[in-house]
Amino acid sequence: MNRIRYTLFDTDLGRCAVAWGGAGLVAVQLPEASDAHARARMQERFPDASECAPDEAAARAIASIAALLRGEPADLDGLELDLSRVPEFHRRVYVAARAIEPGRTLTYGELAARIGSPGAARAVGQALGRNPFPIVVPCHRVLAAGGRVGGFTAHGGIVTKLRLLRIEQAHAQEAATGVLAYDPLAALDHLRGRDKSLARLIERVGAYRLQIKRTPSLFAALAEAIVYQQLNGRAAASIHARLCALFPNAHHGPDAVQLLRMSDEKLLGAGLSKAKLIALRDLARRTQAGELPTLEQAQSIGDEQLVECLTQVRGIGRWTVEMLLMFRLGRPDVLPVDDYGILQGFALTFRNGAATGRDGLTQRGERWRPYRSVASWYLWRAVDLARQPD
Fold this sequence. Notes:
The protein contains 19 helices and six strands. It is of the alpha/beta class. The protein folds into four domains: 5-69, Methylated DNA-protein cysteine methyltransferase domain (Double Stranded RNA Binding Domain), CATH 3.30.160; 88-171, Orthogonal Bundle (Arc Repressor Mutant, subunit A), CATH 1.10.10; 184-211 and 335-387, Orthogonal Bundle (Endonuclease Iii, domain 2), CATH 1.10.1670.40; 218-327, Hypothetical protein, domain 2 (Endonuclease III, domain 1), CATH 1.10.340.
């Protein structure tokens, strides 16, 4: 008897679920708004299914899906799927979609041609819209005509789709900003030797895990930073995804020329404020005029020179450039002394929670040169530790 079972599991996007039977996976459920919603969806799809611990094959699927959603490389090709409930045309679409390499995309029309059904782009889109195995059957790698992002039925919609594409592209190609510009082990040795209080924090936190965020261009990184300013992460991600969806190849985001050609009405309709629209247009004009360096050129420009150059852009302040230096360019010696989290972490680490202020942080930071970026990362983690329940 091919009894269906399912289980919920944690990922960086939220609680997901998988269902399986004797012949392999029968469904993958991307995050719903809550556990109750996820269970209701599984019961709707499989009324007789029971919730239980995963078997060995389901556990492998869970581990692979969770790894991918953490931003880690994950091989999903070996996961067995039970396609017995899937129409024949849909099977062909899903098999072809699984053959798309991570980091690559096809349009619905191109995928239709691959399965020998040119002209069936709409039918391909409908099949992918009913995909019971999202992520494992990577419907997120299939875009609408012209490279537009198209739809995505998972919780979070195009925000989730764009995040999946960016995770995969980060592993599929080495961008100029793909590696740290320093040896983290050497940095930790230096910091432990120079500051005993910081050394104790390092021991409490553990390994240094700063991750470089890859970007196709300096313009794309700064445009995203502008959108995210003064918003919580979820709201900003939603607005940024809607903005990107206005343009071809949405997973890369618009370039300066495309943004300048887009009407104010459409940009505001994506959720941008008037101030952010003005800032994005200033960024685009300066980029197109050659006033700003390319991503490759930025690699050879000093930290302070970049700060001076990029803060000429409306809406770009020193803190924004410092985040770019740390998390996009992998620079070793950045200390954002105006960052509230770092100031809070400094107070927790060096003054038992009492405020110490910018001047005290700046002075102490001299001990940490030339690895103040690493020290900053640990100060942020000090705040995380303080928030954990005893």
